[in-house]
Amino acid sequence: MAEPEQRLLMLIDDEPAQSRLITALAAREGWRTIVVRDSETAIATLGTRQGMQLSAIILDQWVPGDQAAALIEELKSRRPALPILMLTTSTSPQLAVEAMRAGATDYLVKPIAPDRMMQALRNTTTREAPSDELTPLTEKMPAVLDFDAMVGTAPTFRDALAKAAKAARGHGAVLIEGESGTGKEMLIRAMHGASPRAKAPFRMISIAGVPANSLESVLFGHEKGAFPGAFDRQVGALQNCDGGTLVLDEIDRLSLELQDRLAEALAARQVRPIGAKHSFKVDVRVISASNLPLTDLVATGHFRQDLLDLISPTAITLPPLRGRAGDIPALTRHFLARIGEQPGLRELGITDGALHLLSAFDWPGNVRQLQAVLFRAAVFCDGNALTAEDFPQLSEIIGEMRENPQPMQESGGVQIYAADGHLRPLDEIEADVIRLAIGHYRGRMTEVARRLGIGRSTLYRKLSDLGIDNAA
Description:
alpha/beta; about 15% strand; Rossmann fold; five-stranded parallel beta sheet
């Protein structure tokens, strides 16, 4: 990886305000930025001494317009190894397909979210993987905002989903923990869509994406003249979301000082803007998300116990993908079906060899990374099904798969064999099948019993005998 002082970014953009924002964000990641305003200057710059020092390019699609793919191809032909990120105002995956086929590494939808921009820049200089096949895309497909889109039958995952569905119907605070990419944002949006506050104000704030010196004002607001530069009064997110829901993502990144201020506001259900002489009563539901277990941070003195108590009357932990590897085949087919619905793409099958390969990887980027890898593979696949050859970097990491792999014993996510190669006990398999059916039919027990070919009373007896929570 290049040292921070050696990382030089070329931004192709003709909007001064956006150029200043991107330059400032890039500087926070150790990048120096040169800005060019048109395609011709960008191509000419590649041949200069400064151009030879470039580590990445960001291209605003607005500059070349419909010729964006052609410009990307031209830039890649001159500098094949140079990562290119494209900015666009469109959420259509068609642009992503065209940009990737032309050679773009990633793309971002405007208005730019600071945390996503910085993550995209970090990805351009990550070299743990041979190149970009395993790098999660910053923007992929439009998110599906309901519980039906949360695919998986692993007991830990179903337990988390059942708790979230129950919590969605209430008004209390919720804490969702889990590694990056496990689906916390998707779960939060599904909860909001199913909540009684679904039509009330809703806002998500990434703690890591807001400058530390602005965060207090963003959360609590400020009065005019409260500090140098406060030329106007600003209403904070807590007050703006009165009657609705405020999501605090990466709350583990909140400073101890602001943790104290937030705990005081949540306990009193009152918000006092910076410089204000009085407080405002608020009714706001706070949903917090953390990549790290907050109890561990409390133990080390990096998170306040009183705040943790206030934000976690319901605590949900989403398991990492490596902890529910049996869900990978079902997730893969779900994502391929959704990818096939996108303009410029088609639904693809997948071979057992490819599924073996995907299941053998530990997926440090979790579900988000799996989706991105499948999206990239689908973009460049010429056949009717993805094979192991469509994932060359995975093959390089894991090693070559057997020439004739045995068909996977997935049975829709139910494992037939134990780790020692012997059949699992029948009651364990039966329990997994019942859990799968409950998840598939979303807890409609009459339908579950009908599909399993048993009566409701028999089903409930089995639930009791097998120790299965019927919400799981």
